[in-house]
Amino acid sequence: MGRLHREGGLKPMDAEQLRECAHKMVDFISDYYKNIENFPVLSQVQPGYLRELLPDSAPTHPESFQDVLNDVQAKILPGVTHWQSPDYFAYFPSNSSVAGFLGEMLSAGINMVGFSWITSPAATELEMIVLDWLAKALKLPDEFLSIGPGGGVIQGTASEAVLVVLLAARDKVLRKVGKDAIGKLVVYSSDQTHSALQKACQIGGIHPENHRVLKTDPSTEYALSPESFCEAISHDIASGLIPFFFCATVGTTSSTAVDPLLALGEITKSNGMWFHVDAAYAGSACICPEFRHYIDGVKEADSFNMNAHKWLLTNFDCSALWVKDRSALIQSLSTNPEFLKNKASQGNMVVDYKDWQIPLGRRFRSLKLWMVLRLYGLENLQAYIRNHIELAKMFEELVKQDPRFEVAAPRKFSLVCLRLLPPQNNEDCANKLNHDLLESVNSTGKIFISHTVLSSKYVLRFAVGAPLTEERHIVAAWKVLQEEASALLRIL
Amino acid sequence: MGRLHREGGLKPMDAEQLRECAHKMVDFISDYYKNIENFPVLSQVQPGYLRELLPDSAPTHPESFQDVLNDVQAKILPGVTHWQSPDYFAYFPSNSSVAGFLGEMLSAGINMVGFSWITSPAATELEMIVLDWLAKALKLPDEFLSIGPGGGVIQGTASEAVLVVLLAARDKVLRKVGKDAIGKLVVYSSDQTHSALQKACQIGGIHPENHRVLKTDPSTEYALSPESFCEAISHDIASGLIPFFFCATVGTTSSTAVDPLLALGEITKSNGMWFHVDAAYAGSACICPEFRHYIDGVKEADSFNMNAHKWLLTNFDCSALWVKDRSALIQSLSTNPEFLKNKASQGNMVVDYKDWQIPLGRRFRSLKLWMVLRLYGLENLQAYIRNHIELAKMFEELVKQDPRFEVAAPRKFSLVCLRLLPPQNNEDCANKLNHDLLESVNSTGKIFISHTVLSSKYVLRFAVGAPLTEERHIVAAWKVLQEEASALLRIL
């Protein structure tokens, strides 16, 4: 395989050169998956490792594709943390799949920039259709479907999803009370809500002292209590402030807690607030009838978000957001420069997704979600989710059988929170012990797990959800945890 | 090729199934490029066309890959506007290339989520290195390199780039004057600046009446005059307002005007303002020594942005942003939740790009830029840019030779602005005439061009820059324009 610069000048998009190189890349990537268990899951390189290995400026003349592939193997892959490894149990999963990968390839091949309908009608229309499909699979209320004043849109991440709805809500209330009242607007969430909300507040200019971070505890399994929500709102109204936005979570990052949507939603409604539901991780599980009840109450929500790129086999990025009133989004995010005007847009005949998101340009991301839904079908996707939850249950049982450990929060989906108990119930050293356990487990390279803090306790998070994970990986992972725990306890 | 669901249950990431299907997809995409000239460039479908063709819910059972590919061919491609067609001359280009495509494939294959260094050190470090390479190729000041307090980062789009620096600048000044002064902050730009700045102001809560959109005209070739900038600032200061952000453009969207960076930059500096340079399109040309002078004065800038995904053969999305003071970005955009804490981050040993951007998650986008720079080399990339500029010059000459047309703004890079002159110099009908010409040209499906308005005149934009465009396409495009113009003039 030679240089891409052949006789007769550069041919940057020659179909036959593309065919030749891309076939080679397919084999490279397939081999990567075949051998993925051989890599340390968490990259073991030191900060700055790559600068030692690469030149400090771009080459003047072309290099060969084989040279680049060799460098990927020798220099890049050692610095990769392998999210697709079956031994990856950190954070939440970020699924790759054959179907998702094929969709990404096709999207990169067509390489259109779908900001307006006209720039590729198929991109906008497939997105509307596929998000309707997914909304129906999740049994979302009809108001979230694209046939009415609402609809779905693919955002890059849940952070962008919560940001755009926060902006829509902010501007909706400021249109009523005047923009100088921004310092009076209050946002509510629990202390388990993802930091994406805090970031959205920072971006949108909500004063940090007006973000109510309401405390949760084990008595509600870290779910927000409607009573404390109500109290906080009353207190703020009495102080002359304006409650305008609430973000509930179904499946919190730390422990997959589920806020009671129905009760909380009714409170937001009676106070005229925007109610956003973040189900970034756990939303995928709600395609199974037996888990759907976790989003009962979503009918009260103004917006709902789940990440198909987490646990629904759709390669990153694909964060599905539905809103009941798309005009609120559009009023906040639209601009209408002359150079983008066209008959379809000016005639209000179409959706222009540029006005539903932060960036102008957008990729053809619906292709991968469409391929996932078609190539697997809903029944298989449900089985896929159920299998992970069964594996997590199995892991939970293993933890329970070892008296040195405790399950640190109730397991609802595929995340198990666990903790190594300190010897002689000495809680003073418990956090350090678990921190050390995390470090030693992850340094083995055999598995990768992450942590959180719940009620001041340092807790290990074991999240099942990589597409290649099987029972044997769970068993082996537990063995690693046990062995590292034994080693730590020995030297105490 | 059968269903992905085989005997023995779903295998969503089976290496051999991936190999089989992805080889087939490579051939599909290569054939697409082989036949790309046979499609209408601008999709000719009607709004809502796709809903007629697809079922209204996701399938319960898996479908075959061949069925999906057949649908892509029969139902999706007719709704695609072919940005990679050699006959695409609308907006600005959005380059695809063999190298860029390979990088996208690899990124989708690894499918990691690189929010923090630890989540894949190679993703963060390659991005720092490759943006240093590109900064050097552009001869950006050393303060933009990652060795000091500055550095580069890949954003999705220029919209996100201007937003994050606007937020950094906003918070920097609000830390001094207090956050209740947000209503006094003033942003400056010319009337040629991209609408992304207006959107950033809306998001960041800058009052719309405090966005000074300074008029330009043909006397400066639509560049902003330092005098009017100075005047506006003085006037605002006298009114008790606080000038804090200025966005200059190198290569405006409407006509590729170039704001005089040096003079404007000195004014921002003496007024303590943040100076952002948006060279989204024309930045790529500045890797050629003969065009580098257009960004002379960038040394005054606090931030500089160019889109490698526009005209530098890197598949969408890859918007390169450099800042001199990364701590300003980080102060605005960082959050530090417990569940993301890790030794490398807490020890300040690494860059965590999550704090340089809006979303949390991020793809491995540096791979494609790295592949483009290595597989083509700077000399070929320069030749690639020069070739497009030569083709644009050729087109400009063709326009000049036809007395029915005029070149409507000076050509600097690869965009030609042109206008069909109205018969009998009747300016009243000139705008409608050119609007009708645009519609009729684009309805042929033979080429796709776009438009703008300059000094109240409706102007056609002909932007050369697709990787497959050759001289013969320019000649044929001009013939289409001439023929449609003749037809229109006949019926007047």
Topology:
The structure is a homodimer of 492-residue chains.
Chain A: E1 5-6, E2 9-10, H1 15-34, H2 65-76, H3 98-110, H4 121-137, E3 151-155, H5 158-177, E4 185-190, H6 195-204, E5 211-214, H7 226-238, E6 242-249, H8 261-270, E7 274-278, E8 303-307, H9 308-311, E9 319-323, H10 326-333, H11 343-346, H12 366-401, E10 405-407, E11 415-420, H13 430-443, E12 450-454, E13 457-463, H14 471-491
Parallel strand pairs in A: 4-5, 4-6, 6-7, 7-8
Antiparallel strand pairs in A: 1-2, 3-9, 8-9, 10-11, 11-13, 12-13
Helix pairs in contact in A: 3-12, 4-12, 5-6, 5-10, 12-14, 13-14
Largest chain-chain contact?
A-B, 162 and 162 residues
CATH superfamily of one domain in chain A: Type I PLP-dependent aspartate aminotransferase-like (Major domain)
Which CATH class of one domain in chain A?
A: Alpha Beta
Report strand order across the widest sheet of chain A: 3-9-8-7-6-4-5
SSE order of chain A, one letter for each helix or strand = EEHHHHEHEHEHEHEEHEHHHEEHEEH
Share of helix of chain A, binned: 40-55%
**Total number of helical segments of chain A?**
14
Rg of chain A, Å, rounded: 24 Å
- Class derived from helix and strand content of chain A: alpha/beta
CATH architecture label name of one domain in chain A: 3-Layer(aba) Sandwich
Q: According to CATH, what is the topology of one domain in chain A?
A: Aspartate Aminotransferase, domain 2
Family (chains A, B): Belongs to the group II decarboxylase family.
Cofactor (chains A, B): pyridoxal 5'-phosphate
Keywords (chains A, B): Decarboxylase, Lyase, Pyridoxal phosphate
GO molecular function, one term (chains A, B): L-tryptophan decarboxylase activity
